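Protocol step 4 of 5: obtain the predicted structure for the target chain.
Materials: sequence only (see below). No template structures provided, no constraints applied. The aim of this step is simply to have a reference model before the mutagenesis design in step 5. Sequence pasted as it appears in the construct record:
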Amino acid sequence: MLVVLMIQLQSFSRLFLVLSVAPFGLIGVVAALLIAGKPLGFVAILGVLALVGMIVRNSVILADQIDTEIAHGRAPWDAVIAATLHRFRPILLTAAAAILGMIPIAPTVFWGPMAYSIMGGLAVATMLTLVFLPALYVAWFRIKEPSPQEVDRADHSHQLLQTS
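Step 4 output (structure tokens):
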């Protein structure tokens, strides 16, 4: 998995950013299993392994969108904000689809712990990914918020380009 991610992300920094979000799923896993009264057994651990893949996928999508926005000429601060806003709904909808897809097997004896692990972990990790990953990206790459003067100059030059 690490080799494939490294090939895809082409940077150790981005690999670290993407993998740093994965442990957040454990918060939701533990909470969901405690609330449901299910054990953290072999099947639940299989759910945690599947969950890591889902979380990493969401993180890769968001990090790649930030890089795409920067490559298209946006200022890094604006690229982080635009990418997060642009990918918010797709990430949320794919997570919701996976969570809702686990509902039919949640009451079963064998697959129940796995379903609760995935549902709880993905719900918490998705929300934390959408907040933590952009913040970590800004901190890791030392992206500064533009000053009000820079924002005014950018708006003015944008208006000039539109009138030309």
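Step 4 remarks: Helices lie at 2-9, 12-20, 25-36, 42-71, 76-102, 112-140, 148-163. The chain is about 80% helix and 0% strand.
Proceed to step 5.
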